[in-house]
User: What shape does this take?
Amino acid sequence: MLPGFFPLFIAETSLYDRVMTDRKHLLIVAHNPSPNTQKLVEATMRGASHEAIEGIEVKFVPPLQATPDDVLWADAIILGTTENFGYMSGALKDFFDRIYYPCLERTEAMPFAVYIRAGLDGSGTRIAIGKITTGLKWKPVQESIILHGEYRAEFEDQCEELGMLMAASLESGII
Assistant: This one.
């Protein structure tokens, strides 16, 4: 594993569940260069893998490792990024550069949500992601969550709730 990168996490599912049920897929692509941003990924995974949600397979892939096949696997996506100089992380931008054309006509109306760990106000990052996802014709499920200011534990609560709501909405067919 490369220094500064965290391992791939996949919610535990049995072979029977994968073979015998029609599970939907939630992909989390999030840049997590620090222990605090790793906590946000873990909180998002925890929410998306909540015990009350049974019909969803959840997969986290860091943006530099995510491929068009990961996006094509997904029924919905949660994007997470740091705000770097008023823009999304270079890792998330690289992800978009690599998946854009292979996914352009194959993922139209993909439901997605975004959380931004912002040092500034997060607006430049939100706008930049919005332009790319508009080009992909993806469908935002909610407004971007901007986690602004000094790190607070409540950021983890917000990410856990986001993961839970996305997974529950996907499972129930709302998105």
